[in-house]
Write a structure and sequence with these properties.
The complex is a heterodimer. Chain A is mainly alpha-helical. Chain A is built from 22 helices and two strands. In chain A, helix 4 crosses helix 5, helix 4 packs antiparallel against helix 14 and helix 8 packs across helix 19. The radius of gyration of chain A is 22 Å and the shape is globular. The termini of chain A are far apart. In chain B, helix 2 crosses helix 9, helix 2 packs antiparallel against helix 10 and helix 4 packs parallel to helix 11. About 2% of the residues of chain B have low confidence. Classes of the chains: A mainly alpha, B alpha/beta.
Chain lengths: 508, 325
């Protein structure tokens, strides 16, 4: 413990130097702005900024990039809440209740809770990183393909069990997402599937154009077809601050989301989007009033937003403790310090204590900066709603296209975006829930890869899933949940929790 | 008195003027990187571009066009206007993609003869590492163990026909050993699979593995280089151990679309020649752990051709995965 305190003291002596503070602030600011741009997520943000850090020293580089990273994770919520356009993929879940809150005139509290939730999650994450990094990292390494397959299956079962609305429509949408995820090169055999001879499609369909298209473009199309334009809102100052009731409702989701997000973030290769989906599912399940979800429940904003920022911190654990990049984002960050001759590896903490502790301390500072930066800005952002839609929407459309293009400099992605926008428009007209499409698209390639990797490891023997304790435990748990989910289908007459809550009716 | 010399002189003057106007480069050059920022191609391209800027007096901007294991960016360059303003920092995988396309009867993304070499910048041999629990300290012991348990050891790679798959197949073919293959989505995940003990061995880039070698989390066995790697002087090479044909580098070199005017090509070659002597460039390359292996266009062209032949042959030998089962 004493060692940790010494380290932290060293860290703060680094992090509180004026130049580092300035870079942490700049990073958070850029990150927030990048996150707000539809399509541009944390990966695009830090990739674009990476070359600029080559001239800086490694501590500044990593502090700046980390600021961009968690700034973007937070910033993604702003457009989700205000316009139902996910700023980045992990904010898809925030769209649902965040935008509903905006329609109810509670945009301010939604933004404020998102900022506070991100702050709490970020702080929980740093504490976890500081105290548990080496232990947790060893645990994370035990997640091989079989464990990962089991985790993804467990996640799917949990979501199937907890999703609201018409089960049939939800499953149809999840299946559509899974099928979209089949496009592209088959990683185990090298064959390309459904790519229509387009080189760009052999990597599959990206989540960014699909999420922004399905949610963002379709929203713009829908409002163009609306008989009456949504009225321009003029929020008052007192509407910006969450009420006591809203605070009370948010405490649980924020805490659960932070811990859940952190744990999911640690596991190599997992995506933040899963953390926010699972958090949303759990909050709806544990809520005493699940019927409020989808209609502006603040829990539906607090949980997923905390979870995705928690996952952002969790991803640093294997990166710093083991020196292995577990996601594209941490890979870019490792590259940023490697350029300066700092070789990543398990010895990083011993060999570069200033880098490690400076980074940890700067995350504390960065989270405070993020909160200080964003709470006052809530008022500014909410006032964006005053812009008449006739001016606002064309601008947003431009940003959607620019953002999507700049991720891969790819025109194909822009076409996918536009096609998805039209598909999203049609589906929403028919009352389908679009979030499962995004989830299916993310999960399909991961599930397929890990399942086939597991079988490749075992030489085709499915017994590998019951020989490994972590994998087996998760599969059994998943099976139990699955049985619970199908129980009402088999034992007719018994009422499922959905029916009890009146949730088996459609939601849109 | 004929007007012909006059016309000729006028024409020559015109050509000269046009030539002067077209003084290469008169605007920014785009260097395409077919991989996301932070990868080997990118960390080689950026210092090279920065050093070339100083020589050329024009900006050299990096454009990342990732996708399909580099095929997207390579194809973009292959089909770019051959004026010298679009060049590519290619990785050795540029030679594998057309061979794999052919194997699967796919419409090829590009053909190798669409490119012209400019200069080789760096080349890093891969190094075979094993999980420390594997009771082998040398290549001989590894081969003996693999022969004793055919098809039981498994290796991870950066992906099918990827930069870390090809060297392993080269070794397996030469030693007539069978192992299981676990393709992943990149060099990082491939190394993680060994660190976590999910597979026994992998091929790794010298810089990527160095921290893990120092802390004893992986054990280096043998290198694919022609000579021993300066950072791993105690690790023998396959060639030393009698595997004459087992040689593999992940190289990065500048290429352009075929048809770049000779004048422009000469300027570009000259710029790279000076760029690799730049102290900042040298320092940056040393800190990312990449070996600078400068070769001018003619030697690079020969080197590339031999490498491409070797890899294309290997892709055919590896063949389609399910065909083997």
């Amino acid at each position: 413990m004493g060692e940790t305190l010494d380290g932290l003291l060293l860290g703060f002596s680094v992090a509180l130097t004026p130049s580092i503070l300035v870079y942490a602030f700049v990073g958070c600011l850029i990150g927030t702005l990048v996150g707000m741009m539809p399509g541009l997520g944390p990966l695009a943000g830090i990739s674009l900024l990476l070359p600029a850090t080559f001239g800086l020293n490694p501590i500044i580089a990593i502090v700046l990039l980390a600021g961009v990273y968690y700034g973007a994770m937070y910033g993604g919520s702003t457009t989700s809440i205000l316009m139902r356009i996910p700023g980045e993929a992990a904010s898809v879940m925030t769209c649902v209740d965040g935008y509903a809150m905006t329609l109810n005139g509670r945009a301010g509290p939604a933004l404020a809770i998102a900022a506070i939730g991100s702050f709490v999650a970020g702080t929980v994450g740093v504490v976890g990183l500081m105290l548990l990094a080496p232990t947790l990292a060893q645990w994370a390494l035990r997640f091989g393909p079989p464990e990962y397959t089991a985790l993804l299956l467990l996640g799917l079962f949990v979501l199937a069990y907890m999703s609201g609305g018409s089960t049939l429509k939800t499953l149809a949408m999840a299946a559509a997402g899974l099928m979209l995820g089949m496009i592209g090169i088959d990683v185990m055999s090298g064959y390309t599937r459904f790519n229509f001879d387009l080189v760009e499609l052999s990597d599959g369909v990206g989540i960014v154009p699909v999420a922004v298209g399905l949610f963002g473009i379709s929203e713009i199309l829908l409002s163009a077809g609306a008989e009456a334009m949504p009225s321009v809102q003029r929020p008052q100052l007192r509407d910006l601050i969450p009420s006591r009731e809203e605070f009370r409702r948010s405490v649980g989701p924020v805490c659960r989301g932070s811990v859940l997000g952190f744990l999911i973030g640690i596991i190599p290769g997992s995506a933040h989007i899963i953390a926010s989906f699972v958090s949303y599912g759990i909050e709806r399940r544990v809520s005493k009033t699940p019927e409020r979800f989808g209609k502006g429940a603040i829990e539906g904003v607090a949980g997923p937003e905390s979870a995705n920022n928690g996952a952002a911190s969790g991803a640093f654990v294997p990166m710093l403790a083991l020196g292995i990049p577990t996601s594209p984002i941490t890979a870019v960050m490792l590259a940023a310090i490697m350029v300066h001759g700092v070789l990543p590896g398990p010895l990083l903490i011993q060999q570069q204590p200033e880098l490690f502790w400076g980074f940890v301390a700067s995350m504390y500072v960065g989270n405070v900066v993020l909160l200080v930066l964003n709470l006052p800005l809530v008022g500014v952002f909410v006032n964006l709603l005053r812009i008449p839609y006739g001016y606002l929407y064309p601008c947003i459309l431009c940003f959607c296209i620019l953002g999507t293009y700049s991720v891969n400099n790819s025109v194909t992605d822009v076409w996918i975006l536009l096609v998805m926008g039209v598909i999203g428009y049609v589906l929403r007209k028919f009352g389908y829930d679009l979030a499962p499409v995004a989830l299916g698209l993310v999960l399909a390639p991961m599930l397929e890869l890990s399942l086939r990797q597991s079988l490749s490891m075992s030489g085709g023997d499915y017994a590998i899933f019951v020989e490994r304790p972590i994998a087996t435990t998760m599969l059994v748990l998943g099976l139990v949940i699955f049985l619970l989910a199908v129980k009402p289908l088999i034992l007719k007459g018994r009422k499922d929790w959905r029916a009890v809550m009146g949730l088996d009716k459609e939601i849109t | 008195m004929s007007t012909r010399p006059l016309v000729a002189a006028a024409l020559a003057a015109f050509a000269l003027a046009a030539g002067a106007q077209e003084q290469f480069p008169s605007r920014a050059i785009t260097m395409v990187v077919a991989f996301p920022p932070g990868g080997v191609a990118d960390t080689t391209a950026r210092p090279t571009a920065a050093a070339m800027e100083k020589v050329l007096g024009q900006p050299v901007t990096i454009t990342n066009r990732p996708g399909a294991g580099g095929a997207v960016g390579n194809a973009v360059t292959a089909n770019a206007k051959p004026d010298g303003y679009t060049i590519l920092m290619a990785l050795s995988s540029i030679s594998v993609i057309p061979a794999a396309d052919e194997l699967f009867h796919r419409k090829p993304a590009y053909a190798l003869d669409q490119f012209v070499p400019i200069a080789l910048v760096s080349a890093d041999p891969t190094i075979l590492v094993v999980h420390p629990s594997l009771p082998v300290k040398s290549l001989k012991e590894l081969v003996a163990l693999a022969r004793a348990k055919p098809g039981e050891l498994s290796f991870s790679s950066s992906g099918l026909y990827g930069a870390l798959h090809m060297p392993m197949e080269m070794f397996l073919y030469a030693s007539k050993v069978k192992m299981r293959h676990l393709p992943t989505t990149g060099g990082g995940p491939a190394l993680t699979a060994v660190l976590g003990g999910h597979v026994e061995l992998t091929a790794g880039g010298p810089a990527a593995i160095s921290g893990h070698v120092k802390s004893g989390k992986v054990r280096p066995i043998v290198s694919w280089g022609a000579e021993r790697h300066p950072s791993y002087p105690e690790i023998p090479t396959f060639r030393e151990l009698g595997y004459k044909d087992v040689e593999y580098y992940i190289w990065a070199g500048l290429v352009g679309p075929r048809g770049i005017p000779d004048a422009a090509l000469t300027v570009l070659r000259g710029a790279v020649r000076k760029a690799v002597e730049d102290p900042v460039f040298k320092k940056t390359m040393a800190s990312v752990g990449s070996l600078v292996q400068y070769k001018d266009a003619p030697e690079f062209g020969k080197y590339w051709e031999a490498d491409a032949k070797r890899l294309a042959r290997l892709v055919k030998i590896v063949g389609k995965v399910e065909a083997k089962k």
